[in-house]
Amino acid sequence: MPTWLLTGFRRSYQAPYSLNNTNQTLVIKRKRRCKIPKYLFHGSYTEEGLKGFLKEGGSKRREATKQLVESVGGTLEAYYFAFGDNDFYVIVEVPDNKSAAAGSLVANASGTVKVKTVVLLTPEEVDEVAKMTVEYRPPGQ
After folding, report:
1. Which site from 57, 117, 120, 141 is most exposed, i.e. has the minimal number of CB atoms within 10 Å?
2. CA distance 44 to 49
3. What is the DSSP string of 110-128?
4. CB 32 within 8 Å of CB 13
5. pTM value?
6. Extents of the domains making up the chain
7. Cα–Cα distance list, 94 to 10, 64, 126 (Å)
8. What angle do CA 112, 48, 103 make, to 5 degrees?
């Protein structure tokens, strides 16, 4: 029985199909060709945001954040509440900087949160950065 292989995706799938009345298996192999950027969003609730948070609770906030991230083509990896200057920390994968900025702008424009965005780098990416040659002239020199 022949097997077909399609690449360019993240996982492998096998699906039976019929071609000219012969039973065959279609294998779709998914693998990442490019790395999806990760971002850390952290921030705090405004007074209005805290009222809504107390009314809805933490699970509803996580679900709303998940919907926002998915609407720009991303995935929510982690969502934590914290003590201190920041009320929440969120780690997401989204396709690009524009998608990350769009989510941040919409959240900040609501007036209920103050969100800051941090682009995250892997140790391997930092290794590549350390090997780069960069020209730089300090101010005044």
Report:
1. 141
2. 9
3. TTSEEEEEEEE--HHHHHH
4. no
5. 0.72
6. 1-33, 38-127
7. 15, 16, 20
8. 10
Q: Where do we find the tokens 């609730």? A: 45
Q: Are 59 and 80 in contact (CB under 8 A)?
A: no
Q: What order do you get walking across the sheet with 22-29 strand by strand?
A: 3-6, 22-29, 12-19
Q: pLDDT tens-digit profile of 58-113?
A: 999 999 999 999 999 999 999 999 999 999 999 999 999 999 999 999 999 999 99
Asked if residues 37 and 94 have their Cβ atoms less than 8 Å apart, the reply is yes
Which residues pair with residue 18 across a beta bridge? 23
Residue 108 CA to residue 53 CA, distance in Å, equals 15
First to last CA, the chain: 71
Give the ranges where 10-122 is alpha helix by DSSP (H).
47-56, 58-71, 97-109
Residue 96 token pair: 């690009």
Q: State which H helix or E strand residue 130 sits in.
A: helix 123-130
The amino acid at residue 39 is Y
Tokens (6 digits) for 85? 């200057």
| Architecture of the domain delimited by 38-127 | 2-Layer Sandwich (3.30)
